[in-house]
Amino acid sequence: MTKNRGVVYLEPGKIEVRDIADPTFNAPDGRKIEHGVILRVLSTNICGSDQHMVRGRTTAPAGLVLGHEITGEVIEKGSDVEMIDIGDIVSVPFNVACGRCRTCKSQDTGVCLTVNPERAGGAYGYVDMGGWIGGQARYVMVPYADFNLLKLPDRDRALAKIRDLTMLSDILPTGFHGAVMAGVGVGSVVYVAGAGPVGLAAAASARILGAAVVMIGDFNKDRLAHAKKVGFEAVDLSKTDRLGELIADIVGVNEVDAAIDAVGFEARGHAGGEQPAIVLNQMMEITRPAGSIGIPGLYVTEDPGAIDSAAKVGSLSLRFGLGWAKAQSFHTGQTPVVRYNRQLMQAILHDRLPIADIVNAKVISLEDAAEGYQTFDAGAAQKFVLDPTGQLLDAA
């Protein structure tokens, strides 16, 4: 290995690419790991969830190496790894999961019971998610490799579609999970809140699941223009705070079969200020009786920058009685990536799901990560893919 470098969180609003320690076969608590591999990272993406930490909206500690969206090449493996070989190109689910506990065996890998001593669920480079080192770096260690890693079947084919396949680690399965949990199927009328990368991935997932109409709402004009360009019905939320009217302008009625919240806890209202529960309340208003709401957008248990004391501990003012009265179904939580990533890989490889174009992926150097974070945080209609080795930029 050459010297490792990675994206390090320093303080709210500040990250740097720094020299970091080379990965070792050790868990965060120091235990030796023989079921892991070390990857040379080929692509690693900037996620909206990372932005929450960089903005100071979590309790992330200084010195945290960021990055949970990882695709890489295996360069070393532990003695207990049987199904993965050196040289394989693999997609890494953002969930760190053991594959052995009760929840992992039911494919609920977002809440693995063994990889995080603080609570159920682990992830790379994320606050309160077990201390696993992030993958916005040249090299990273992945534990429980046989269970976690998705081997991409053909090296040349994988590299040719790396801009699409890099989305398998998080945002594509997350959007797909939101659509599945919202009950999207053939003929569904769907509304997606948020035209960022996860919202676009949810919209693309709804389309491949057979939705008749997919609407996507946002205040950001550039993101709405891109959503329209890639074939979705753009809903400009700046026009009115009555979302049902905007939906009726498109489909003739003020309700939908399925709604997907791809915004999360930093939601803003029509007046411009933060209203962390506004999207959830709107979802209940516009979703038909007995309809379903998928919530892949992030909600946290601690938010130092929240607008009030209740929101600081994740307590939101929900009109839950409306959802109860309408017999609606809700599904929240981190996406269990292994439940979906193999079939989504097939859709990509067989040209059914051009997700890189849909989310407007842009490859940049790892060394330009700080600029990518800043541009993304300003609302750019792009998904930034970091290239630690230069291989993707060289091939462009």
From TrEMBL:
Keywords: Metal-binding, NAD, Oxidoreductase, Zinc. Residues 35-154 form the Alcohol dehydrogenase-like N-terminal domain. The keyword Zinc-finger does not apply. Gene3D superfamilies: Medium-chain alcohol dehydrogenases, catalytic domain, NAD(P)-binding Rossmann-like Domain. InterPro entries: ADH-like_C, ADH-like_N, ADH_Zn_CS, GroES-like_sf, HCHO_DH_non_GSH, NAD(P)-bd_dom_sf. Transmembrane segments: none annotated. One of its GO terms (molecular function) is oxidoreductase activity. It holds the Pfam family ADH_zinc_N. Its cofactor is Zn(2+). It comes from the Bacteria. Residues 197-298 form the Alcohol dehydrogenase-like C-terminal domain. NCBIfam families: fdhA_non_GSH. Belongs to the zinc-containing alcohol dehydrogenase family. This is Aldehyde dismutase.
